[in-house]
Every structure is written in C-alpha cells, then in structure tokens.
Amino acid sequence: MTEQEEKPGRDPIFETGPRLALCALLQGAEWVDFATARDMLGATDSAISRHSRALEDAGYLEVRKGSVGRRPRTWFRLTKTGQTAIRSHLDWLTRLRETLDT
C-alpha cells in the first residue's frame, strides 16, 4: 500500500511553504496577480516564485505573463487538477481534525 493510499486526500506538496495558502487564495478566483498573492500571503517575491514554480511543475497552477502598460505582470490560477488536489487535501485535513477532536 502506498503512502497516498494510506492517507487519501493528503498531498505533501501543500505541506511546504505558502503553497497551501496560495492555492486557498486562488481557489475562488479566476486569475490573481503576483503582487496581490505576495501581499495577501505576506511572503517575499522569491518565496512566491519558488513555490508557484513547484505548483506549476506539479500541474496545479497555470501561470500567465504579460504586461500592463510597460510593466511586466504575472498572474496565477489553479488548473482543474489543482482545484481537485486542494479540495481533496482540505477534506483530508478536516477528517484529521475530526478524528483528533473525538
């Protein structure tokens, strides 16, 4: 039995840095710009860059780059896979909390 089968819904990618918070922020949005994500999470630019790359590499995050006027901008949104993964992980955390409360 694999670790994922032993702990359904748990996804270790969300247990490092602000990845869980970033995905939670994106869960209810169409697109969120880099600066808004950074400010809402209280994280540094390098932390957002590093963790968004890990989520993108996992197929959980879509990144769009462009510009507003002459200023470069980056936007994020969850992919369908990312939406399913965060929902499943949050459900697992809820079940874990319920187990601990009993």
Automatic annotation (TrEMBL):
Species annotation: Saccharopolyspora kobensis
InterPro entries cross-referenced by the UniProt entry: WH-like_DNA-bd_sf, WH_DNA-bd_dom, WH_DNA-bd_sf
Keyword tRNA processing among UniProt keywords: no
Taxonomic path: Bacteria, Bacillati, Actinomycetota, Actinomycetes, Pseudonocardiales
Record keywords, A-Z: DNA-binding
Residue span(s) of domain Winged helix DNA-binding: 19-96
A GO term, aspect molecular function: DNA binding
Protein name stated in the entry: Winged helix DNA-binding domain-containing protein
Top-rank taxon: Bacteria
